[in-house]
Specification:
Pfam families: DUF1349. It comes from Bradyrhizobium centrolobii. This is Regulation of enolase 1. The protein is mostly beta strands. About 0% of the residues lie in helices and about 55% in strands. A hairpin with a 2-residue loop joins strand 9 and strand 10. The protein is globular and about 40 Å long. The two termini are about 20 Å apart.
Length: about 200
């Protein structure tokens, strides 16, 4: 299913960027100014202006995505998003914060949380995987697309279907160029929690 998925008709843009192109299994975007996904916590505002290309899923699935970007400014971010609606979603990937690239995820159910950890590999290329099944979200990140350490395990709202796909935001600027590729959407992998394959 990975070949020309970014040109399939069932992908739906939320906040389509001014500049983007799809070729083969690759999607390239350049972020617009002041784009973000966040709800309320700490900052007091809600923003739903980030770029997201969502593909419909079944009630359980695994989605995997390769991301390439040069993260330089505060809050530059790109990765994967799983979304039910404006108030229920998760985004996960790399976010630039405190002067360095961080592994970051934001889980939102009415209000957002934000979890970060230093990313010890080359953040200009990484892979991210999301599995949703039976009300549980499992996030994994990989430096090579082969070894997949756990990034986050959490409850997640049940739905008959979700939207999943690439996400990018630049709250403080415009112009982050991101290339997404090798996007795969499959039934849930069903692997043991400590199976890193």
């Amino acid at each position: 299913m990975s070949d020309p998925i970014f040109r399939r008709n069932d992908g739906v843009w939320l906040n389509e960027p001014e500049r983007w192109s799809a070729q083969g299994d690759s999607l390239q975007i350049v972020t617009d100014k002041a784009t973000d996904f966040w709800r309320e916590t700490h900052y007091g505002f809600s923003r739903d202006s980030g770029h997201f290309l969502g593909f419909p899923t079944a009630e359980a699935f695994t989605a995997e995505l390769r991301v390439q970007g040069d993260f330089q400014a505060l809050y530059d971010q790109a990765g994967i998003m799983v979304r039910i609606d404006e108030q229920r979603w998760v985004k996960a990937g790399i976010e630039f914060s405190d002067g360095r690239a961080m592994l970051a995820s934001v889980l939102t159910d009415g209000r957002s949380d934000w979890a970060t950890a230093p990313y010890e590999h080359d953040a200009r290329e990484f892979w991210v995987r999301a599995t949703v099944a039976n009300g549980v979200l499992r996030l994994q990140a990989s430096a090579d697309g082969k070894l997949w350490p756990l990034m986050r395990l959490s409850p997640f709202a049940k739905a008959s279907s979700y939207l999943v796909g690439p996400m990018a935001c630049t709250p403080e600027r415009a112009g982050l160029k991101v290339v997404f590729s090798t996007f795969r959407l499959t039934p849930p992998l069903g692997k043991d929690l400590h199976d890193l394959g």
